[in-house]
Design brief:
By secondary structure, this protein is mainly alpha-helical. The protein has helices spanning 2-5, 9-32, 35-52, 62-81, 90-97, 105-119, 123-134, 139-146, 150-171. Helix content is 75%, strand content 0%.
Length: 174
């Protein structure tokens, strides 16, 4: 980070915010499942990144370093909260509905049904589903964000899809 060496940390954090804000928010949201909490964690992550920039040594890639801070901060927030929001909460549903500006009633019902099923998945499977499908991250990006091998991400996605398919078949939901 040449800007940090030139003592232009504020400019550096501006570039990092532009590059990583959405992905950090998506990672935080996959852990916390609540928009406001994920936004708080995102802000906290970039404060930590700003403070730690002078100590960044380049041993890991910048993205891996930022995602590690984001993952650890998300886990800390989750432990501190100990109360997990449900994907059926009105605030979470409003965030999900915002993806489609004019959703039909059928689309809303289908989305709610899918989110209820996703909410029942084991934590790691739910996280990879949320990041891969709902946040649009690649296998590699999900692996980096969750600090796991790409093969593990693919396995978790496969298992989650199988569980969702089986659950949808049992409940008659989409």
């Amino acid at each position: 980070m040449e800007l940090v060496r030139q003592e232009r940390r504020d400019e550096a954090i501006g570039l990092l915010l532009a590059a990583f804000r959405r992905k950090v928010f998506g990672l935080a949201y996959s852990f916390l499942r609540e928009g406001a909490a994920a936004e708080d964690v995102t802000q906290e992550v970039f404060i930590k990144v700003w403070r730690a920039l002078p100590r960044f040594d380049g041993r890991a890639s910048l993205s891996t370093w930022v995602y590690t801070i984001a993952r650890n901060t998300s886990l800390s927030a989750l432990r501190a909260r100990r109360l997990q929001a449900s994907l059926s909460d009105p605030e979470v549903m409003a965030a999900a509905e915002a993806v489609d500006p004019v959703p039909s009633a059928d689309a809303l019902a289908e989305r709610a049904a899918v989110l209820r099923l996703v909410d029942q998945l084991p934590t790691k499977q739910r996280q990879v589903i949320m990041l891969f499908y709902m946040a649009g991250q690649s296998h590699e990006e999900v692996a980096t964000m969750l600090a796991m091998p790409v093969g593990t991400v693919k396995t978790l996605l496969h298992r989650a899809r199988a569980r969702l398919s089986a659950a949808a078949g049992r409940t008659g939901e989409p």
